[in-house]
Design brief:
The protein is α+β, with helices and mostly antiparallel strands. The strands form 10 sheets. Strands 1, 2, 8, 9, 10, 11, 14, 15 and 16 form a 9-stranded antiparallel beta sheet that branches. Helix 8 packs antiparallel against helix 9, helix 12 packs across helix 14 and helix 14 runs parallel beside helix 16. The longest helix has 22 residues. The protein is globular and about 105 Å long. The relative contact order is 0.10.
Length: 984
C-alpha cells in the first residue's frame, strides 16, 4: 500500500507541471464565478418605463457608460461609486457628501436610463435626499456628475444647508487587466481604490449650494465655471436621450420596453468611428466577422454600415494569386490548421483580413462569411445600385475564394473554417458542413439577384445556389429526424453526424436554405434535443448550444448570441410564441437577473464553465438587434425585390404594440377579430409593404400593401395550428434509454478469461505518443492535431498516459475491476489498438470458444467533442451459426476519453444515469465516477492522472456457441483499444 501511495505521489508531481502547461493556458477556462455556483438568483433589476431600476443594489462597476468612440468608459455601480477605465489612466472615483460616503448611504435607488445612471440617495445623517446623475461626454473622454439635494419645503434648516462634496480619486487596485476589467474575465474588485493614494478634489458649486457638478476629463477632476459645467451636463444628457430614442418599443411586456434604448446605447459603445468592434469592453478590438456588422442597417445607421463595409472591403486581398495547391497545413501547429503563407489557397485573392484597411495581415479565421452576409443584408435595407456596383468585385472575389477553399471537390457542400462565433474548437476535417453551406447558398442566391440588377451574368451564381440547396437536401437534411446533420465526414465511412448544434439549425433557417416546413421541423428538434435550462422560477428556459461532450470552449456553452439567433430562427419559422419565450429567457437572464442592467453579454450565468462573463459583446448586440426588430417586430426589408415584409412575432395575448426605427415605424392594435397595423416607412427607396401572417406549422399567408409612405393594413385574425413547445427536460424523446454495456457485473457466476496477448500491438501509453499522419484531408482545413488530441486552438495539447502504477497492481497476470478478473500483462504491450488512422488496423478479430451470457471488456481509447453522440466504434460477437450481437461504443453514453472525466450536471451536460466502471491507471482506483473518487474539479480538461481504462459488459446469447469477437473503429479521429476479454 505504501508503495502504491509513493508511486501515485511521484506520478502526480510529474503530471502537475504538465497539466498546468496544458490546461492553464486555456484562457477561456478561467472562471471568477465559482462562488456563485448553486447560489439562488434574485431579480436584481426591474423595469420602470424605459429604465432598469434597483434599490439598495450591491453590484459594483458593472454598468459601463460609453461616451466618445474610444476605449474610454465610465464604470458605474448600483451605488454612486465609479471608475474611469482606459489603459494607463484607470481611476477609482468616489464621493463624500456632507460627511457621508455615498456608497455606504442607508438608502440608494438607482436607474439606468437613456445611457445615464441616476441615483436617489438617503441617509439618516442628512435631513434631505440627494439626487445624483452620471453621464459620459459624447465628444471627448470624460464624464459629468450632477448633485442636487431635495428637502421638505417646511424644513428651513435642511433647505439652508449647503452641499459639501469631496471627490476622492485613486488608482485602481489592479491596473493590469486581463480582459479590460470585464465581468467574469477579471477578478472581482479590480476597480476598487488603492487606499494609500487618494486625491481629494472639490465639486463645482452653484450659488445656492444645492446643486453641484464634478467634471472628469480623461482621469482628472477639472475645474470650470458653474454655468459651463451645467451646459456640458445638459448637452450630454440631451445627446444621449436623443440617441437612446432612436429605437423605441412599446408593448404589454415592461421587460421588453427598456430594450430599445439599451440596444442603441450598447451598439453606439461598440462603434469606434469607422467599424463595429468585437466588443465594447473585454474584446474591444476590430473584427470583420461575427454578428456586430448587422447593427448599422438594423438600427438605421446607413452611414455607419457603409463605413464598416468600405473599411473591410479595403482589407480584401486582391493581388496575391493562389499558387500553392491544397493542402497547406501548418506543421508547427501539428497540422491542425492552415499554414500562414501568402499564395496558399486560403491566404490569397478574396481573403478578408481582420483589421480594417489592412489587406496584408493573415489571421486564422474565415471572417468572409459573416462580413458578406451582413453586406447582403445592407443591400436588403438599401438596394443602392451605385454602391452594389462598387462592392460587386468584393462579393464575387469572396464567392470564388469560398469555392476554391472549402468546396475544392465541387460537390456544392462547403467545409467550415472558423467562420462563426462557435469556432474555437470546431473542426470538420474537410467535411460537408451545414452552416457554411447555408451561408454560401444565400451568398450565391443574392449575388445572382444583384447581378440581374447590375446587368451582370447571374447564371453562375444562380446555378451554384440551386446546386448547394439540392446537395443540402439530399445529403445533409435528415428527414427521419427533421433536422440537418452537423456535417458529413469527408473521409473514412463518410458518416453523417446527426446531433447538430444550434448553429446548424438557425443558420440554414436564417439563410433561407429550407422550406417553411423544414424550418418548423428543425426548431422542433431544438425543443426535443437541445438542453433547456430554467431561468430560475420565471417559467422561461434558456438553452445551451449543443449536447456534445466533453466540454471544450465554444462547443457547449450557454451563449447569449446563440440563444438570440435561435430565437430569431423560431420567429422565422413562424413559431412566434416559442421565439418570444426563448428571447425573453435570455433577456431576463442577462439584463435583469444578471449583474449588469441592460447587458448584451456573451456568456450566461447558467454556463457551467464560465458563468456570467463579458458585457456588451458585439456579437450579441448585433444578433439581438435582428431578433428584436426582424423577429419580435418582424420588420424584414427585402429591398432587392422592392418590398418589406412585416411578420410580427407577438404573443397571442398582446392586443397592442408599437415600434419606432429611423426607417420604419408601426402601431399594432387588435380590434375585435382583426389585427390593424398603421405603418409609416422612411426607406430611401420606398418599398412595398407585405404583411405576413403565421398560420401554424410553419405555414403563412401574405397580405400585400403598397409602397406608400403611410398606410393602414387590417387583417382577419387566424387560429394557428401549432403544437405546444416541448422542452428537452419534458420530452419523452429526450429521455435517456437504457445504455448498453454499463450493467453491473454478475458476481455469482464463474468467469473465464480469454487469452489475447499475441494480438497486442501497443502499450496503452502509446496513444498520444504517435504521429497520426494518414489518411488526412487533401484540402486545407481544420483538423485534429497529429498527436491525436487537441484542436486548432490548442494544437500542442497532449495528455500524459501512464499505466505504471496500474501494472504494479496486477497479481499473477490478473487485474480485477468491480469483481471481474481480467488477464493483463505487467510488462510489454498490453492493448490492441484499432483506428481509421494508418497507424493501426481498423478492426481486429478475436476467436472465441464455448458459450457465455456476458462478455466483459477492458478497454481504453480516445474520443472528443466532434465525435459526440455518434458511435465511435462497435464490438460485434459472431456466433457459430453466423448470427451476431453488437455493442456500439458511443460518446458519451458508454465510451470515454482515456485522458479525462466527463463533466455532467444534468443540464447542458447529460450522460446516461449509469456510467461505465473506469480504472485510473495511476492509482488503480475503480469507480463509476472517477471525477468524484479522485476529487477532479471544474468543467474544462478534467484530466485523470495517468489516464483511465474502462469496463463494459456485453450481453450475449448463452444458447449459442461463440465464434469470434470483432472490434471495429468507426470514427475518423479516434483510437479504440481492447486490453482484455473475460467471458461469463
Amino acid at each position: 500500500m505504501r508503495k502504491r501511495i509513493l508511486l501515485y505521489a511521484m506520478l502526480l508531481s510529474t503530471l502537475a507541471s504538465a497539466q498546468k502547461q496544458k490546461i492553464g493556458d486555456f484562457i477561456e477556462s478561467t472562471s471568477y464565478n465559482l462562488d456563485k455556483i448553486g447560489v439562488e438568483r434574485r431579480l436584481q433589476y426591474e423595469p420602470q418605463g424605459n429604465a432598469f431600476f434597483c434599490e439598495n443594489g450591491t453590484n459594483r462597476f458593472t454598468r459601463a457608460l460609453y461616451g466618445s468612440h474610444t476605449d474610454w468608459r465610465l464604470e458605474t455601480s448600483d451605488r454612486p461609486v465609479f471608475a474611469v477605465v482606459k489603459k494607463g489612466h484607470h481611476r477609482n472615483i468616489r464621493f463624500e457628501v456632507n460627511g457621508v460616503p455615498l456608497d455606504s448611504a442607508a438608502m440608494c435607488r438607482a436607474w439606468y436610463r437613456n445611457g445615464i445612471r441616476h441615483y436617489l440617495v438617503g441617509d439618516r445623517r442628512w435631513k434631505w435626499t440627494l439626487y445624483v446623475m452620471a453621464v459620459a461626454l459624447p465628444q471627448e473622454e470624460g464624464a459629468v456628475f450632477m448633485f442636487s439635494k431635495s428637502a421638505s419645503c417646511s424644513d428651513l434648516e435642511a433647505i439652508r444647508e449647503r452641499l459639501s462634496i469631496k471627490v476622492l480619486s485613486a488608482p485602481i487596485a489592479q491596473p493590469k487587466l486581463h480582459r479590460n476589467g470585464d465581468i467574469g474575465a477579471d477578478p472581482p474588485g479590480v476597480f476598487e481604490p488603492l487606499s494609500d493614494e487618494v486625491t481629494v478634489d472639490a465639486a463645482i458649486m452653484g450659488k445656492e449650494g444645492d446643486v453641484a457638478f464634478v467634471v472628469v476629463k480623461l482621469d482628472q477632476v477639472v475645474d470650470m465655471p458653474f454655468q459651463e459645467a451645467n451646459q456640458l451636463f445638459s448637452s450630454s444628457v440631451s445627446y444621449f436621450k436623443e440617441l437612446s430614442g432612436r429605437i423605441r418599443f412599446q408593448t404589454p411586456d415592461p421587460f421588453i420596453n427598456t430594450l430599445g434604448g439599451a440596444l442603441t446605447l450598447a451598439a453606439d459603445g461598440d462603434w469606434d468611428g469607422q467599424t463595429w468592434l468585437h466588443g465594447c469592453i473585454g474584446w474591444r478590438m476590430p473584427l470583420a466577422g461575427w454578428r456586430a456588422g448587422y447593427l448599422g442597417d438594423v438600427l438605421g445607421w446607413n452611414d455607419r454600415a457603409v463605413s464598416h463595409f468600405d473599411a473591410y472591403a479595403k482589407s480584401q486581398v486582391t493581388e496575391v494569386e493562389p499558387v500553392i495547391p491544397h493542402p497547406s497545413q501548418d506543421t508547427t501547429m501539428n497540422l491542425a490548421r492552415a499554414e500562414k503563407k501568402w499564395g496558399t489557397q486560403m491566404y490569397s485573392n478574396g481573403y478578408i483580413c481582420r483589421n480594417p484597411e489592412r489587406n496584408d495581415q493573415m489571421h486564422h479565421y474565415d471572417m468572409n462569411l459573416n462580413y458578406v452576409d451582413e453586406l447582403l443584408w445592407h443591400f436588403q435595407y438599401d438596394a443602392d445600385t451605385t454602391y452594389m456596383r462598387k462592392m460587386w468585385p468584393v462579393l464575387t472575389s469572396h464567392l470564388a475564394w469560398e469555392k476554391r477553399n472549402y468546396d475544392p471537390d465541387g460537390d456544392h457542400l462547403y467545409d467550415a473554417y472558423c467562420c462563426i462565433w462557435a469556432s474555437d474548437a470546431l473542426y470538420y476535417s474537410g467535411g460537408a458542413v451545414t452552416h457554411s453551406s447555408a451561408y454560401n447558398y444565400r451568398g450565391n442566391k443574392l449575388a445572382a439577384r444583384i447581378a440581374e440588377l447590375l446587368g451582370e451574368d447571374a447564371a453562375p451564381y444562380r446555378t451554384e445556389a440551386e446546386a448547394i440547396l439540392k446537395a443540402m437536401n439530399e445529403r445533409l437534411w435528415l428527414p427521419e429526424k427533421g433536422v440537418w446533420a452537423e456535417y458529413q465526414d469527408a473521409m473514412g465511412l463518410k458518416r453523417k453526424h446527426d446531433h447538430p448544434a444550434v448553429w446548424s439549425i438557425y443558420t440554414p433557417i436564417d439563410c433561407g436554405a429550407c422550406t417553411p416546413q423544414q424550418a418548423y421541423e428543425a426548431t422542433r428538434y431544438v425543443d426535443r434535443h437541445i438542453p433547456h435550462i430554467d431561468v430560475e422560477d420565471t417559467g422561461y428556459q434558456t438553452i445551451s448550444t449543443s449536447d456534445w461532450l466533453p466540454y471544450s470552449w465554444s462547443i457547449n456553452n450557454v451563449a447569449a448570441a446563440e440563444v438570440m439567433h435561435t430565437a430569431l430562427a423560431y420567429f422565422e419559422a413562424g413559431r412566434a410564441e416559442e421565439g418570444y419565450r426563448l428571447m425573453k429567457a435570455n433577456v431576463l437572464d442577462q439584463m435583469y437577473y444578471g449583474a449588469s442592467p441592460g447587458n448584451f453579454g456573451q456568456i450566461s450565468y447558467y454556463d457551467a464553465a464560465r458563468g456570467e462573463c463579458y458585457r456588451d459583446f458585439g456579437d450579441c448586440i448585433g444578433i439581438s438587434s435582428r431578433t428584436l426588430l426582424q423577429g419580435l417586430f418582424g420588420i424584414i426589408p427585402q429591398a432587392l425585390d422592392g418590398k418589406c415584409i412585416i411578420r410580427p412575432g407577438f404573443p397571442a395575448e398582446w392586443e397592442n404594440a408599437s415600434v419606432r426605427t429611423p426607417y420604419l415605424e408601426y402601431k399594432y392594435t387588435r380590434k375585435d377579430d382583426c389585427d390593424v397595423y398603421e405603418i409609416t416607412q422612411h426607406f430611401r427607396q420606398p418599398l412595398k409593404i407585405v404583411l405576413r401572417q403565421n398560420l401554424g406549422g410553419g405555414a403563412y399567408r401574405d397580405v400585400e400593401g403598397t409602397d406608400e409612405a403611410h398606410q393602414l393594413i387590417s387583417v382577419q385574425r387566424t387560429t394557428q395550428r401549432d403544437g405546444a413547445s416541448v422542452s428537452v427536460t419534458d420530452s419523452a424523446e429526450a429521455s435517456s434509454p437504457s445504455v448498453p454495456g454499463v450493467a453491473e457485473p454478475d458476481l455469482t457466476k464463474a468467469f473465464r478469461q480469454v487469452k489475447i496477448d499475441r494480438r497486442f500491438n501497443a502499450e496503452v501509453d502509446d496513444i498520444f505518443k504517435n504521429e497520426y499522419l494518414s489518411p488526412r484531408p487533401q484540402s486545407t482545413t481544420l483538423q485534429i492535431p497529429k498527436q491525436g488530441i487537441g484542436e486548432w486552438c490548442h494544437p500542442q495539447l497532449t495528455a500524459e498516459i501512464n499505466d505504471s502504477v496500474f501494472r504494479t497492481l496486477i497479481r499473477k497476470g490478473v487485474f480485477t475491476v468491480a469483481g471481474v478478473p481480467f488477464r493483463t500483462p505487467a510488462e510489454g504491450e498490453n492493448i490492441i489498438y484499432t483506428s481509421l488512422w494508418d497507424n493501426y488496423p481498423d478492426s481486429v478479430v478475436i476467436p472465441l470458444k464455448g458459450r457465455a451470457k456476458s462478455a466483459y471488456l477492458l478497454m481504453a481509447g480516445s474520443t472528443n467533442h466532434m465525435q459526440s453522440r455518434i458511435d465511435n466504434g462497435v464490438v460485434t460477437v459472431t456466433y457459430a451459426d453466423g448470427s451476431t450481437d453488437t455493442l456500439a461504443l458511443r460518446n458519451p453514453d458508454n465510451w470515454c476519453p482515456i485522458e479525462q472525466d466527463y463533466y455532467a450536471d444534468g443540464k447542458a451536460f447529460k450522460t446516461a444515469g449509469l456510467r461505465p466502471y473506469r480504472v485510473c491507471l495511476s492509482t488503480g482506483d475503480v469507480s463509476r465516477d472517477l471525477g468524484k473518487a479522485l476529487g477532479i474539479q471544474g468543467v474544462y480538461g478534467r484530466e485523470i492522472p495517468g489516464g483511465a481504462a474502462q469496463m463494459l459488459r456485453m450481453t450475449l446469447n448463452p444458447e449459442k456457441k461463440l465464434k469470434s469477437l470483432t472490434l471495429r473503429t468507426l470514427s475518423n479521429d479516434v483510437v479504440i483499444g481492447l486490453m482484455a476479454i473475460t467471458l461469463q
